[in-house]
Predict the 3D structure of the following.
Amino acid sequence: MRTTKKHLAPLAIAAIVGLPFAAAAPASAQDEGTELSADLSQLNDSGVSGTAWGMLEGNMLEIKVEADGLLADSPHAQHIHIGGENTCPDPNMEGTGFEGAIRVTDAAGSYGGVMVSLTNEPGETTPEAALDVANFPTGPTVDYERTIELPEDVAASIKAGDGVVVLHGVDHDGSGAYDGDIESDLDPSLPSEATDPAACGAFDVAQMSMPEEGVATGGGSTQGTENAGVLALGAVALGAGAFGVAANRRRNTNAGR
Ligand SMILES: [Cu+2]
């Protein structure tokens, strides 16, 4: 599994400043959360790129998707897929769509089926809402965030690293709209362009639980324990980066939802 700098940063910073990382953490930090991150890479030469970030605590998933390069003024279905090999397809794979374009089901062996529909409120987040176009973000950019209660089995699969984020909608012929003769393999009333995958990223998973006391060794810090704790939490925030800051803000605004 790929480990990004983002994941390493908190421990790395703790090591640099010589903190007894575990000892300084408050008791509540022992509760594990699962941080998810994915780089979204283009499929079907869409030119789309982006990132997805998530924090899974129990069955509650806080998720954020940012992307650009999508067809403007058109809705873009976005989902968490689970199944198959729990990966993104080879972007060069030959599909059944426009001039060999990858259609949704062409890649099902890679990323499985839709398990979570990443709609805006009030859209449902169930698989049945996979084509709820009225509640999906509209291109050319996506700046999405929502907190979703997941079914238990879906949460478990995502926690195990099986979640793949897929954004859909590709203007293959450059007409500026979803059109063409090829029907969508999800809904024949739609052109295939409306549902063909535009970007994909498999979630990397990082457990946020603190190491057991004594595992992380301090490096001769003269800091008091209280200060060390503040610094350690600061390092966690730095590690999460801009998304972490946004996440904290969302957690407050979403309280009680
Ligand atoms: Cu999808």
Q: What stands out?
A: The chain has one domain: 32-210+246-253.
